[in-house]
Amino acid sequence: MSDGARTTSLYTADQVRRVERHAIDRFGIPGFDLMQRAAAAAYAVLRRRWPAARRVLLLVGEGGNGGDALLLGTLALRDGLAVEALALSDRSTGDAAQARAAFDRAGGRVRVADAAAEFGDADVCVDGLFGIGLSRPLDGVAAALVARLDATRRPVLALDVPSGLDADTGARLGPCVRADATVVFVAWKRGLFTADGAEACGERELATLDVPLAAFEDVPADADLLDASIAGVLAPRRDNANKGHYGHVLAIGGDEGMGGAIRLAGEAALRTGAGLVSVATRPAQVAVASAARPELMVRGVDDRSALDPLLARASVVAIGPGLGQAPWGRALYDAALDCGKPLLLDADALNLLARSPRALPPSTVLTPHPGEAARLLGCDTATIQRDRYAAVRSLAQRYAAVAVLKGAGSLIADAHGRVAVCRWGNPGMASGGMGDLLTGVVAGLLAQGLSAWDAARFGVALHARAGDLAAADAPRGMIAGDLLAPLRHLVNRFEA
């Protein structure tokens, strides 16, 4: 592992424990030394983010997370800040006992909390209740403290993982701290970047605690964050080129009343750089789509026989937006899957696949939202969201395809178990047509010769970053079409 890889590698809680154990056993770093480093890193973040803070409240668990908080409090006391500690217990375990003794010597006072504990007039609250060790919903006094913390809306700094958040899945286990910032120790935990992770963490900062890279040698990362280097999968265009060099996307969909969906997909493929884009749709949709975007070659098709010549000319097929599940859509779906060309399935094409699973062509990409993923895996949406990593891996393996599980912290997986995680995107993208746009983006990249894995990863990154640029500071009310201009900019000059 390199220093650069450390900033994009994601680990499970168990993997991070193994790294920490290597640091202690193989490299002779005492556990209490790591705790001191964690406290110093977190305290530096607190002072930088809230320089005017004079009163700090520590929420303290029995274990290591509580020890980190108490040592942070010790540093704050030495700087003359007023510090109060509310603890779940009158004792601390392991190295945290030594941290509690240090806090006592510095003049700190620990008060055992009850469900009615008051927070006083703290300027910043530090969440040191549980960290990565939690695998059950908070209850009792801990749940009451978290509820009170949320109600007060004081600034919150979480240590390692917001208490109540599953470090592996990013799912809230019940009551959960909502932090303004989270200082993550040693390595990124994978759950902080998907599901409820981003909302619970606020701003995330990594403090490696100077753990040697060699401590990671036999602990391969579970997943990887997308970063700006993903743009390198798409080579610069040659000067001596023509449209034939950049592929021909055929976008299929747009049953009656749904023509806008397939037009959005087609336009996104053009804006991403496909050389040619054809759209196969209901004949009634042709005039409107052609007038709105004349660069699209829009063809009306009534049945499979009308689609076959279009399939023969295409290099990539994207099917699903507005397709429907009536006989017309089913006939086109069957033809698309039989053509053997690189394929992207979205929307109703995924629902048809769930109803009648079948082998898919090589270089297939699936782009389900959680509801569609649940149908593909024969479960419910709640199961998908409880462990999005397990879900996306299951999708990729079951269908021998690259799978994109859309949502907060979109995940991309291949059949070999690799997972990439998108750190970009915003709530303004929760509106109709965004998924249709992603269909076109990924198809456009496939047409330009990218593998299914690279097209899905770069496509998700482009789509999410275009959403961020389009939203700026006004995400509410954003529509899918707003992403087309920044999408063209980003595919030429990607900005993380």
UniProtKB/TrEMBL annotation:
Positions that bind (6S)-NADPHX: 64-68, 131-137, 160, 261, 322, 369, 436
Top-rank taxon: Bacteria
Parts of the chain that traverse the membrane: none
Keywords: ATP-binding, Isomerase, Lyase, Metal-binding, Multifunctional enzyme, NAD, NADP, Nucleotide-binding, Potassium
Residue ranges constituting the YjeF N-terminal domain according to the UniProt record: 16-217
Swiss-Prot/TrEMBL catalytic activity: (6S)-NADHX + ADP = AMP + phosphate + NADH + H(+); (6R)-NADHX = (6S)-NADHX; (6S)-NADPHX + ADP = AMP + phosphate + NADPH + H(+); (6R)-NADPHX = (6S)-NADPHX
Reported cofactor(s): Mg(2+); K(+)
Family that this chain belongs to: In the N-terminal section; belongs to the NnrE/AIBP family.
Binding site for K(+): 65, 127, 163
Cofactor binding, note field: Binds 1 potassium ion per subunit.
Residues annotated for AMP binding in this entry: 406-410, 435
InterPro entries named among the record's database cross-references: CARKD, Nnr, Ribokinase-like, YjeF_N_dom, YjeF_N_dom_sf
The EC number(s) this enzyme carries: 4.2.1.136, 5.1.99.6
Keyword NADP applies: yes
Family matches, as PROSITE patterns: YJEF_C_3 (PS51383), YJEF_N (PS51385)
Species of the source: Dokdonella ginsengisoli
Lineage, uppermost ranks: Bacteria, Pseudomonadati, Pseudomonadota, Gammaproteobacteria, Lysobacterales
Function description: Catalyzes the dehydration of the S-form of NAD(P)HX at the expense of ADP, which is converted to AMP. Together with NAD(P)HX epimerase, which catalyzes the epimerization of the S- and R-forms, the enzyme allows the repair of both epimers of NAD(P)HX, a damaged form of NAD(P)H that is a result of enzymatic or heat-dependent hydration. Catalyzes the epimerization of the S- and R-forms of NAD(P)HX, a damaged form of NAD(P)H that is a result of enzymatic or heat-dependent hydration. This is a prerequisite for the S-specific NAD(P)H-hydrate dehydratase to allow the repair of both epimers of NAD(P)HX.
Subunit structure: Homotetramer.
Protein name: Bifunctional NAD(P)H-hydrate repair enzyme
Domain (YjeF C-terminal) ranges: 226-494
